[in-house]
Amino acid sequence: MQIKSLGHVVLKVRSLERSVAFYRDLLGMKEVARHRGTMVFFSLGQNHHDLGLLQLGAQAELPGPHSLGLYHVAFKVGDSLDELRECKAYLERHGVVILSSSDHGVSQSLYIKDPDGIEIEVDADPVLWRDNPAAVATVRPLNL
Q: Does residue 128 register a pLDDT over 70?
């Protein structure tokens, strides 16, 4: 057996409508389906859905910083620093706090949080890692 690609990710959220406003309206993902009022699915164009949201309700507890599970979800916004700069400016114009920015060598990234505090990475992915697939992501400061 060999896994060919990541099929999709499902995130547990408190409010579908609040999260839909973030992922669809702010980040520009295409909403493709809803299920029984508790799930929403988004496609980035290659799969039926790449991201799903599952509503747990307002009482849902956040995982602690030392809990097992998801660390963050990363979405590619381009292949250049200029595209990442445009993304940063767009997010800031819409009131999104940029938590940090990093040069990982294999990508350059901004870190933000969704409405439920789930960490989201938006990155630009230069082609350099294709020439060296063994390159390891590092963390260096990135000033945009």
A: no
